[in-house]
């Protein structure tokens, strides 16, 4: 009489056990599943970092990283939703689940890896340099005691202040810090060399130059939620980056957006492209 | 200071992950302390300036000259009807570029810096409200009292300083109290023009050390403390100025 009861209880327990096991295994894939379920991937991108992420004349977000986000959405077969993020809040957007993925010109730093899931291979790199009026700066040490404009949230503000004794005046957006430079409120604007390069190439900065040797060359990292770094979502993005680098897609995008070609992308392409000699 | 509290917060970070770096690392501690100083200077300067604007403004509102009265009304409408954030940016980026500055070789040292513009902009903003608050106080002073002062031979300005204003103050202190607390909180907007006050510095610190929740808590407690002190001072003032049987 009791046997069937015990048996069914046992079955239930086992089933429950399996259920628990399978949920623990899936816990780190919640975000990835959600993306597929809702048929939409939400990507955090920059809106003030020309030409990686900015608004065109109609107000639409465009740029190299937006194209990359579109590639991700296409590969997943889902729709793309873009969320503009700031340097100072982009990691919180990801932590709080407001975005599924962040491609926002972020430098890959040790302390950041504790908070968001940065996946390799890094898709880009840049160093720190300054934009200044021609003929004023010769070396980094010239910045000592002088006002240098920057953007709130950039990690090199502190480095420039600590290493060279510059007085960093950091504004909320690049538009304000660049305006402050034009107004002569500071002697230079400290930022990524790649971004300064494209500013100079845009022709809007005649009379200005990038006079110093770039320092602290640092790879950029895109990020998924930290729990998913080693699960499907993280592995998927690692694969995306590998394909972008080896297929020459990023070099193509660099050209499309008028960015000075970087040695990094060519080097990565050569390094990561597998020897296919064994294939006939 | 850092030696005493440093080890505790260092341990807290290692043990629990709560990173109150400002209490154990010298560089961040110095930044934090400098920010306390700047923000208190900013608050005191803004409060003082807005009070002066309010007192002068309320007097100007009742001036004989039509031009002064019209000018005053225009000022109040302009500053009350535009966001303080926009005013701050306009002062710094528009008015700031046409004010005199000294060429320092590669950059210009302005006569009025970011701090100065913050005080001017926020002071005028809160001053517009203070003007209206003082006016409400002045209007509450009975005409009979003013007439009595005139009968005793007081000139308009003397009557304003010695009779009207002291009485008006007592009436409008609660409203003034409110506006000053608001102004204290509004000084955080100065982070947008890079005045290194508490909001700006906290932002820098959390960007460099990715400890947003911790710095948010510090910010909250800091401003709760400051507002608490201001309210306490204002209440004491209100209490000391009380005339038994009046108001």
Walkthrough of the structure:
The complex is a heterodimer of chains A (280) and B (247). Chain A has 280 residues and is an alpha/beta fold. Chain A has two domains: 29-123 and 221-272, D-Maltodextrin-Binding Protein, domain 2 (3-Layer(aba) Sandwich), CATH 3.40.190.10; 126-218, 3-Layer(aba) Sandwich (D-Maltodextrin-Binding Protein, domain 2). Chain A is built from eleven helices and 14 strands. Chain A has helices at residues 2-26, 30-38, 64-76, 90-95, 110-113, 156-164, 174-182, 193-201, 232-247, 249-256, 263-272; strands at residues 40-46, 48-49, 53-55, 61-62, 79-85, 101-102, 116-118, 124-133, 147-151, 167-171, 188-192, 208-209, 215-220, 223-225. In chain A, strands 8, 9, 10, 11, 12 and 13 form a six-stranded mixed sheet that branches. In chain A, α9 (232-247) crosses α11 (263-272). Chain B is mainly alpha-helical. Chain B has helices at 2-16, 26-61, 66-80, 84-98, 114-139, 143-151, 156-186, 198-209, 212-241, and strands at 101-103, 108-110. In chain B, strands 1-2 form a two-stranded antiparallel ribbon. Chain B has a single domain (2-241), classed as Orthogonal Bundle (MetI-like fold). Helices cover 77% and strands 2% of the residues of chain B. The model of chain B has no long low-confidence stretch (mean pLDDT 91).
């Amino acid at each position: 009489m009791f046997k069937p009861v015990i048996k069914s209880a046992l079955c239930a327990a086992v089933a429950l056990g399996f259920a628990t096991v399978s949920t623990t295994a899936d816990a780190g894939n919640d975000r990835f599943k959600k993306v597929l379920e809702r048929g939409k991937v939400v990507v955090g991108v920059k809106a003030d970092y020309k030409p990686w992420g900015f608004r065109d004349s109609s107000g639409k977000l465009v740029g190299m990283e937006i194209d990359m986000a579109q590639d991700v959405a296409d590969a997943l077969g889902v729709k793309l939703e873009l969320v503009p993020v700031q340097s100072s809040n982009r990691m919180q957007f990801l932590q709080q689940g407001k975005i599924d993925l962040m491609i926002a010109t972020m430098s890959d730093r040790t302390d950041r890896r504790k908070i968001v899931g940065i996946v390799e291979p890094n898709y880009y790199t840049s160093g720190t340099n300054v934009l200044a009026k021609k003929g004023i700066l010769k070396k980094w040490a010239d910045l000592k005691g002088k006002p240098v404009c920057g953007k709130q949230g950039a990690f090199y503000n502190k480095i420039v202040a600590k290493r060279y004794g510059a007085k960093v005046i950091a504004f909320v957006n690049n538009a304000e810090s660049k305006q402050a430079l034009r107004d002569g409120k500071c002697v230079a604007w400290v930022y990524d060399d790649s971004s300064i390069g494209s500013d100079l190439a845009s022709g809007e900065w005649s009379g200005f130059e990038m006079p110093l040797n770039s320092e602290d060359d640092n790879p950029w990292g895109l990020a998924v939620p930290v729990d998913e770094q080693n699960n499907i979502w993280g592995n998927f993005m690692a694969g995306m980056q590998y394909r972008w680098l080896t297929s020459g897609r990023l070099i193509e995008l660099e050209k499309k957006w008028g960015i000075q070609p970087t040695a990094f992308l060519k080097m990565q392409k050569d390094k990561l492209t597998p020897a296919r000699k064994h294939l006939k | 200071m850092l030696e005493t509290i440093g080890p505790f917060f260092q341990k807290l970070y290692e043990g629990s992950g709560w990173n109150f770096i400002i209490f154990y690392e010298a560089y961040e501690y110095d930044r934090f302390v400098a920010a306390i100083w700047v923000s208190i200077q900013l608050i005191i300067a803004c409060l003082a300036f807005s009070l002066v604007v309010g007192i002068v403004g309320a007097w100007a509102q009742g001036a004989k000259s039509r031009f002064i009265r019209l000018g005053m009304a225009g000022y109040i409408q302009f500053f009350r009807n535009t966001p303080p954030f926009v005013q701050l940016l306009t002062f710094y980026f528009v008015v700031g570029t046409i004010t005199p500055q000294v060429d320092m070789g590669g950059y210009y040292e302005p006569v009025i810096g970011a701090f100065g513009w913050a005080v001017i902009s926020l002071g005028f903003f809160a001053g517009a409200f203070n003007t209206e608050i003082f006016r409400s106080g002045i209007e509450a002073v009975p005409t009979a009292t003013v007439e009595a002062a005139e009968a005793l031979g007081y000139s308009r300005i003397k009557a304003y300083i010695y009779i009207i204003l002291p009485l008006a103050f007592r009436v409008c202190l609660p409203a003034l109290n409110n506006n000053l607390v608001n102004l204290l909180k509004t000084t955080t907007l100065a982070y947008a023009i890079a005045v290194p006050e508490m909001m700006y510095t906290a932002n820098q610190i959390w960007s460099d050390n990715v400890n947003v929740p911790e710095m948010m808590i510090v910010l909250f407690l800091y401003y709760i403390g400051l507002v608490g002190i201001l309210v306490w001072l204002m209440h004491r003032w209100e209490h000391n100025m009380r005339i038994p049987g009046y108001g």
